[in-house]
Specification:
heterodimer; A: 119 residues; seven-stranded mixed beta sheet; four-stranded antiparallel beta sheet; 0% helix; globular; B: 109 residues; mainly beta; six-stranded mixed beta sheet; five-stranded antiparallel beta sheet; 11 strands
Chain lengths: 119, 109
């Protein structure tokens, strides 16, 4: 149990375009989803936290108009990188916590990540 | 002071030996603690969680929690080359998760 998927796994786009990344909880209801960004050889950086049906809470320094997060259902959250630029190239990872049977609500389960390259 | 601190490593461990990783946290009201393993280029995967003082064992892994001293550790017994990865300590502090920067472990044959 506790499987989180992400799509796409890898995306290459031109500068100025927008990219949408989907994060799905496959076998549990994700009450909270988290979006992280990780640059090579650096630690995870939390970008935002989203609860189903409400607006995401962004970390300091993360532009909410550039990184649009939607958590429309208990199994799906999306991150849209708008007007992407080369400096947005990174590894984007989502995670989720939730409830399903014996699954603890405060354990984060991570998706496999999406590698974004902006040319 | 960082909220969750780990030695960055690399921690070099001979194959078959015990790897010992430490993590300290600053907020005494932290409630739950997690160890994740992250291979290069991959996302973190959960190794185990621990909520109470003492030891918790799962296969070759043992997590130890000491809330009075505000530290949590991870022991990896019979280390294998496949254990070479970065190990992340995570703390749930008042509903907010804080990750350490991770300790790189290199298991040498």
């Amino acid at each position: 149990g506790a499987v989180v998927s992400q799509h796409p796994s890898r995306v290459i786009c031109k500068s100025g375009t927008s990219v949408k990344i989907e994060c799905r909880s496959l076998d549990f209801q994700a009450t909270t989803m988290f979006w992280y960004r990780q640059f090579p050889k650096q630690s995870l950086m939390l970008m935002a936290t989203s609860n189903e049906g409400s607006k995401a809470t962004y970390e300091q320094g993360v532009e909410k108009d550039k990184f649009l997060i939607n958590h429309a259902s208990l199994t799906l959250s999306t991150l849209t990188v708008t007007s992407a630029h080369p400096e947005d190239s990174s590894f984007y990872i989502c995670s989720a916590t939730g409830l399903a049977g014996g699954l603890s609500t405060d354990t984060q389960y991570f998706g496999p990540g999406t590698r974004l390259t902006v040319l | 002071q960082k909220e969750v601190e780990q030695n960055s490593g690399p921690l070099s461990v001979p194959e078959g030996a015990i790897a010992s990783l430490n993590c300290t946290y600053s907020d005494r009201v932290s409630q739950s603690f997690f160890w994740y393993r992250q291979y290069s280029g991959k996302s973190p995967e959960l190794i185990m969680s621990i909520y109470s003082n003492g030891d918790k064992e799962d296969g070759r892994f043992t997590a130890q929690l000491n809330k009075a001293s505000q530290y949590v550790s991870l022991l990896i017994r019979d280390s294998q080359p496949s254990d070479s990865a970065t190990y992340l300590c995570a703390v749930n502090r008042r509903g907010k998760f804080q990750f350490g920067a991770g300790t790189q472990v290199v298991v040498t044959p």
